[in-house]
Each structure stands twice: as structure tokens, then as C-alpha cells.
Amino acid sequence: MGYFHSLKTIHYMKRVLTALFTSGVVCVFAQSGPKPDAYAKTISAADMKKHLYTLASPEMEGRETGTEGQRKAAAYIENYVKSLGLQPGNGSSYQMPYNLYQDSLISAALEVNGKAFELNKDFAASPGGPQSIYRLSEVTLIGTGATDSLKSADLAGKAVMIVGTISQNFFAQLNRKSPAVVLTVSANFPRTGTANNRGRQGIHAFKASVDPVFFQVSEAVARAIAGDKYDAVKASSSSVQKAKTELLLDTKKATVVLPASDVIAFLPGTDLKDQYLVFSAHYDHLGMRNGVLFPGADDDGSGTVGVLEIAEAFAKAAKEGKGPRRSIVFLWNSGEEKGLLGSEWYTDHPVYPLDKTTADLNIDMIGRSDPDRKPDTLNYVYVVGDDKLSSDLKPISESINNKYTKLQLDYKYNDPNDKERIYFRSDHYNFARYGVPIIFYYDGMLRPDYHKPSDTPDKINYDLMQKRAQLVFYTGWEMANRDAMLKRDIPLNVPTGF
């Protein structure tokens, strides 16, 4: 261990000495170039609070993608960046439109050996998957402990009944087997209240393949389909059984198309204007549920206003003749809460070349504190992804923080075994999958107000949010003005089963 550390130290000193003797231009720029301090000070707690109380207000209706509330929030962001003098980021427009496609279930039927069962009393059908009528003569029952058997099973185009609690890894393995129908067994029947007949939203109207049709069934239906074989698999989770039966499944669906948009503002660079730095945040949230507002103040109103303030700081510098060398793209995504959809749309249809994008600095929740942290450790931010894709990320991030903001940079969520899988859960990941170096800034507030109506602007620590946003600004200033784009020298590593 000590030997390895010594080699790293020697290698680092060689790099420093080489840089000092061969990169005089960088040293001169660092000593006499534009200073960011005055512009960082324009990122203020008071301004962030003003923006956030507007974006998290009842007027914005929770900013759910595809709703009037989201369109109001997009208009607010657009009007503000116009007032800063920033250019539209999508040709002549500040918005990048895309459509959401959402299946809704109109009706569903299930019969076993000619006996009809009742929707929501005996079974439920997923709104996702294809509209279909299946008449099947066999069902394969698999216990969730039968992972070895699942690996070798031929399930393509067949009906499968899963018995037990399904893990993410089991589901991923099952999905690769391409069954036509998946039945899961639930004790939650009969169901009361209003059924949710709408599926997940997506941005792809046409797909290369279709998902299976998913049905949940009661134990009574499971026994009608498989008899004693259901009880046998329930008793032994590692077992696999086949049941002969006459199973009819019928689903009728319709597709709803909802307009949505990302908001993009642009600041042209100087001598490196054909290279780009992206600052991103998502401005959507969960909307209204049964008349209750989900304000989304921290998630991600905090990141939204952070990028607004960073945009103001760079715009002011440019007006004073101290604009960035690289062009800057300020990107506010919608659709994040639906599955990173807005950033997926942007990176699949990039306005600015991703191979010329030096980095994406993404902010998603910087206004609160992790409730597990001790009171004397709250001057922090979780930094995610700086150990991936580029070896330049961490040295830049740490040196900038040491020089300016002196936050504790916590790398908890860089752990490959992170159970929360935070690295994959915000918009930066869509840049990372294309190889663009990213840093994700995050406060770790997964409870008690995460995705709750109680995520309100009065609970935000505005002074800490200001400091975190200033760190992102300073880091971006360095990345926008350094001579070289960030190296892309670490392969993207996606865990098995993702």
C-alpha cells in the first residue's frame, strides 16, 4: 500500500513539473486572466430564495412534465435567461420540444378454462406493454429463488408466473428471456378506490421490441391456473413447474401524446467557442396528486435556481468582456422524474456535439442536508461521478474547492455498491453514457420530505445552497477556460443487471 502511494506521488510530481515548464500559457492565464470571484458573488441566497419561492409555488402546480405547470415553469426560466441577454440554445428557440407517449388501459379480461375473472377484484393488468389477445395452453411457474433454472429456461413467447418477491436482478434476468406474458401473484385483492390505468411515460413512439404483458393475479386465480403446482412453488422458492391450462388474456389500450420541452440558453465562447460546457438541472417535479401540491423545492427547484444563478454570473462576466473561452450551454431538463426523459432526448438529439462537450455539471438537490449527518458535518456536498470517465475531474474539483469554497466533498455515492444507485438516477447519466465527463452535485436528502408534499421552500438552507452553487460555478469557470478539454481516459462501467 505504501509503495503504491509513493509511486503515485512521484508520478504526480513529474506531471506538476512538466506542466510548469511546458505550459506557460496556462500559468499566465491562471495568474493574469479573468478572475471569477466578483461573478461568484452574484450567486446569492436572496436571489435563489426569490426564484425558488416562485418555482415551488402553487401557481406552478408541481411542474409535472406534460402539464400546464411544467409549461409555466419553462416560460419562467426562458423569460429570465432572456433578461440576462443569453442567446436561445436551440436555433432561434429557448425550448427544445419533444413528445411523451403514455399508454392507458381501456379494458382487460382474464379467463381460465372458460371461467371469467373480474378486473380489480381478481386481477389487474399493467397499462404498459402491447395491446393484445393471448390464448395460451401452458404456464411456467418459477420461484424467485430459482435463478439458476431461470438462466437456462426457454421462455421466449411464453406465459410465466412468478411466485415470490421479485428482485431487480431477477427481473432483469427474466426480461432477457423475452416472455410474452408475466403473471405475478398478489394478496392485494380485491382492490378498492380508483385504479391507475395509465402506464409509464416514454419518448419513443416506435420501439425495436415490445415488453411483455404484465398481469397481477390473486392467489385464487393463481390456483385456478396452476392448481397444486402453485402451492408447490410457493413452498419451495427454487422450484420450477409447468401447468397445462387454457388461459385467455385480453387487453385494449390507447396512447396519449403529451407535449414537453427542455429549456436551453447559450453563451458563446471566445477562442474555443466550438467546444462546450454544460450546466444542467431538471425543473420538473411530480405535479398535483388528488388535489395535493408536490412543490419539489429541493427536488429539483434547488438545482434549477442554482443553474439560473450560475447563468447570471457567466452572463455578467461576458458583458464585462470576461466571457468564457468555451461556449456554455445552460440546460434545464424536464421529464427527469419520468425516467431521465428530457436529458435522454437532448443527448440522443444533441444541439451541440457531445464529442466537443468537455463536461456536464449537473445539479439535482443542493438545498437540504442528509438527515444522517451530524450537525458539525453539514458544510458539505456529495460529489458523484468525479472518479469516472476522466482522470481530470477529481483534481480540478478538489483544487477549486480548496481554493474557493472549502466544502467537505463527500464521495459516499461513488461506491460501486451504492444501494441507492445515485449515479444512475439523474440527468448527468445520459451524458455519461455517451462518454461525456460529468460531476453530479447532490445533498443526499432522501427522507423525510423526498417526493413528498412537504418538500417546501421554507425548509431550504439558502446560505448552504448558495455556497454549493458557487462551487459549481467556480468549477465550471476553470473547465470553460483551461487550454485542453477534459480527458476521456476511464471507460464507462455499467453494473450487471442495470
TrEMBL record:
Coiled-coil intervals, chain numbering:
none
Among Pfam families, the record links this protein to: Peptidase_M28
Against InterPro entries, the record matches this protein to: EF_Hand_1_Ca_BS (IPR018247), M28_fam (IPR045175), Peptidase_M28 (IPR007484)
Superkingdom field? Bacteria
Give every Peptidase M28 domain span. Answer: 263-474
A Gene Ontology molecular function term for this protein is: metalloexopeptidase activity
Q: Name one GO biological process term.
A: proteolysis
The protein in question is named: M28 family peptidase
Q: Which organism is it from?
A: Flavisolibacter ginsenosidimutans
